[in-house]
Specification:
The complex is a heterodimer of chains A (249) and B (254).
Chain A lengths: L2 E2 L3 E3 L3 H14 L4 E7 L8 H16 L3 E6 L6 H13 L5 E4 L11 H10 L3 E3 L15 H10 L5 E3 L2 H12 L5 E4 L9 H9 L4 E2 L9 H9 L5 H15 L5
Parallel strand pairs in A: 1-3, 2-3, 3-4, 4-5, 5-6, 6-7, 7-8, 8-9
Helix pairs in contact in A: 2-3, 3-4, 5-6, 6-7
Chain B lengths: L8 E8 L12 H10 L2 E8 L1 H4 L3 H9 L6 E3 L12 H9 L3 E4 L8 H14 L3 E5 L19 H10 L4 E5 L7 H4 L4 E4 L8 H8 L5 E2 L9 H9 L5 H16 L3
Parallel strand pairs in B: 1-2, 2-3, 4-5, 5-6, 6-7, 7-8
The chains are: A alpha/beta (249), B alpha/beta (254).
Chain lengths: 249, 254
C-alpha cells in the first residue's frame, strides 16, 4: 500500500482538487493521500468548523482515498482550537493535525496544542525547513521540532520535508523517537534520504510528496532510489502511515 | 510499483566528479554509466562537477574529452571570465565537441558582457551553448557559499540576441520557462521542472519540440526524473519525443 502523507488541497477550490487528487493517485499507482486543507496561513475564527464539515462531506463517499488531517493555526484562541480538535479529530473524521509555518514549534504558545494532541494520542505533521535563504518569519526548523519533542515525549510529531531539513535536521531529531520525518521537500536531491535511513531507521520515515507543488511520481522515485529491504520500503511507502494514522483505515 | 517501460532515453544533464558538500554515489564515469544504463538511458550529456569550483576549469575538461563516446556526449565547462576561455575552440576543432557548458553564476561573470566572443566561435561550428541556471535549490545551499541563480531576464536577452545560436538551458524552474519555450533556438532540460504531472502541462502548453529529458545525476537520483516521465499521462510518442528525439534532433545525432 502506498500512502502519501503530505498532500495539500486548496481549501477554496477543494472539490476540483479532490477530483484531481484521486486522478493523481491513480496515475502514480498510489492508494491514498493525506487530505490536508491549505488555507490562509493565519486562520480566522470559524475556519476549523468549515474545514471539519468539508472533511465530512468529502469523506462521505470518497473515504478510501484519503487520510484526513485538520489544519490548525496555533495562533488562534486555544478555546476555539480545543473545540475544533475535539469535534473533528477526537470524534473524527480527521486522524491527525497539520501545522503550517504560522508559529515556531517550540514557542510557549504552542504548548497548549501540543499538550492536547499528546493527551489524545493525535499525531501532528509540522512544516519544517532549514533555509539558507527565503526563510519565513515563523517557520520551524528542525531544532524547534527537537525542542518540542523533548518537552512532549508522548507527542507523535512528523517533521515535514526531509530534503529541506537536510543532514543537520536529521541529526537534530535523531535522539527523539517520537519524531518521524516525511520524504518530501525540494528537488530529487541524492544523499539525504540515505542519511535519514541510516540515522533514523525505516520505522521513522513516511513517504510524502508535497503535492501539488511537487510531482508525486518524482517524489515517489526517492523511495525507489535506495537499496533497502522490501520490508523497509513498504514501511516507508505506507506501513508507517497505517501505524500512525490507523483511524483512517 | 508500475513498470515504467522507458528505454533508449537521452539524458541532457549528467555530471562526473566531486561536489564539496555531500558524498555522491555515481560520480565516476563507470558508476554513472552503469547506473544510467540500468535505468534505460543510452546516452548522456556529461560535464565536470569539479569544473564548478576549479581554479582552472579547462583542466577538468580533459576527463570529459576522454569519456566513452558511445555513451557520453561531452559538454566541457569553460569560464568566460578567464584568459584561457578559448581553450574550448580546440575542444570543438580537435575533439569534436558539440556542446560548451557555462556556469556564469558560479564563475561570477555577466553572460551579456562575456558571451559574444563564444557565440562567434560556436555559431559557425553549429555548436550548442549550455547554460546551467542553477546547480541546487538555493534554500539548501551551504550557508557560507550562497550562489545566486542565473538571472533569467539577462538570459532571455542573450538568447534573443543570438537567434542563430543554439542554447540548451539546464536546471530551470517552471516559473521561468515561458519566455524561452517560444524561442526556436532553445531547448529546455527538464530535471528541475516540477509540478504535478509536469510533462502533461508541458505538452499541453508549449511547442512539442522544446523540452529535453534530463536527470542531473549524480546530484539528483535519476529515479525521480525517470518516474516523472514514466508516470506522466502523455502518450508513448510524446514520452519518446521528450526522452530522446528532441535532443537527438537538436544535436543532430542518432
Amino acid at each position: 500500500m502506498i500512502i502519501d502523507c503530505h498532500w495539500h488541497v486548496l481549501f477554496d477550490d477543494y472539490e476540483r482538487v479532490i477530483q484531481t487528487s484521486i486522478n493523481e493517485l491513480k496515475r502514480c499507482g498510489m492508494d491514498r493521500c493525506a487530505l490536508m486543507f491549505h488555507l490562509d496561513l493565519y486562520q480566522k475564527e470559524g475556519d476549523l468548523h468549515r474545514q471539519g464539515e468539508a472533511l465530512k462531506k468529502v469523506l462521505k463517499d470518497r473515504k478510501e482515498y484519503f487520510v484526513p488531517f485538520l489544519t490548525v493555526d496555533p495562533n488562534v484562541d486555544f478555546g476555539i482550537v480545543k473545540e475544533g480538535v475535539e469535534e473533528y479529530v477526537v470524534k473524527g473524521p480527521a486522524v491527525a493535525v497539520k501545522v503550517h509555518h504560522s508559529m515556531k514549534a517550540d514557542r510557549k504558545e504552542f504548548e497548549p496544542l501540543a499538550n492536547l494532541l499528546s493527551m489524545h494520542g493525535i499525531p501532528v505533521l509540522i512544516h519544517c525547513w532549514y533555509k539558507t535563504v527565503q526563510k519565513y518569519e515563523n517557520e520551524s526548523d528542525p531544532s524547534n521540532i527537537a525542542n518540542l519533542a523533548a518537552k512532549f515525549p508522548d507527542l507523535k510529531i512528523i517533521m515535514a520535508h526531509i530534503t529541506g531539513c537536510g543532514f543537520r535536521g536529521i541529526q537534530d531529531i535523531a535522539p527523539y523517537p517520537n519524531v518521524y520525518v516525511d520524504t518530501s521537500g525540494s528537488q530529487p536531491e541524492d544523499g539525504i534520504m540515505q542519511y535519514g535511513l541510516d540515522l533514523l531507521g525505516a520505522d521513522r520515515i513516511l513517504f510524502g510528496s508535497d503535492f501539488p507543488g511537487r510531482d508525486p511520481a518524482t517524489q515517489l522515485g526517492r523511495i525507489y532510489s535506495l537499496d533497502m529491504s522490501e520490508e523497509d520500503r513498504n514501511k516507508i511507502l505506507g506501513g508507517n502511515s497505517v501505524r500512525l494514522f490507523g483511524g483512517a483505515f | 510499483m508500475m513498470k515504467l517501460n522507458l528505454c533508449g532515453l537521452y539524458d541532457a544533464s549528467a555530471w562526473v566528479g566531486n561536489w564539496p558538500f555531500v558524498p555522491l554515489r555515481y560520480n565516476t564515469q563507470d558508476a554513472l554509466k552503469k547506473k544510467l544504463s540500468e535505468q534505460g538511458i543510452c546516452k548522456a550529456i556529461l560535464s565536470s562537477l569539479d569544473a564548478v569550483f576549479s581554479q582552472d576549469p579547462t583542466l577538468c575538461a580533459q576527463e570529459i574529452l576522454r569519456a566513452d563516446r558511445e555513451f557520453f556526449i561531452p559538454a566541457p565547462v569553460t569560464d568566460l571570465s578567464r584568459a584561457n576561455w578559448n581553450e574550448c575552440i580546440s575542444w570543438m576543432d580537435r575533439n569534436d565537441v558539440k556542446i560548451i557548458k557555462l556556469l556564469p553564476n558560479y564563475h561570477m561573470y555577466s553572460l551579456e558582457e562575456q558571451i559574444d566572443k563564444l557565440v562567434e566561435e560556436t555559431v559557425k561550428r553549429d555548436a550548442v551553448i549550455s547554460v546551467q541556471v542553477r546547480m541546487q535549490d538555493a534554500r539548501g545551499q551551504y550557508p557560507l557559499l550562497q550562489v545566486k541563480d542565473v538571472d533569467v531576464k539577462e538570459l532571455e536577452r542573450v538568447v534573443k540576441k543570438y537567434p542563430d545560436q543554439k542554447f540548451l538551458l539546464n536546471g530551470m524552474y517552471m516559473g521561468e520557462i515561458r519566455p524561452f519555450a517560444n524561442m526556436d533556438n532553445v531547448r529546455i532540460e527538464t530535471s528541475a521542472l516540477e509540478l504535478n504531472d509536469v510533462f502533461r502541462s508541458l505538452t499541453e502548453g508549449y511547442p512539442q519540440d522544446r523540452f529535453v529529458f534530463g536527470t542531473h545525476t549524480p546530484l539528483f537520483f535519476p529515479e525521480g526524473n525517470l518516474f516523472k516521465l514514466g508516470y506522466a499521462s502523455i502518450s508513448d510518442q510524446e514520452k519518446n519525443r521528450i526522452g530522446r528525439e528532441n535532443l537527438s534532433r537538436f544535436l543532430g545525432i542518432e
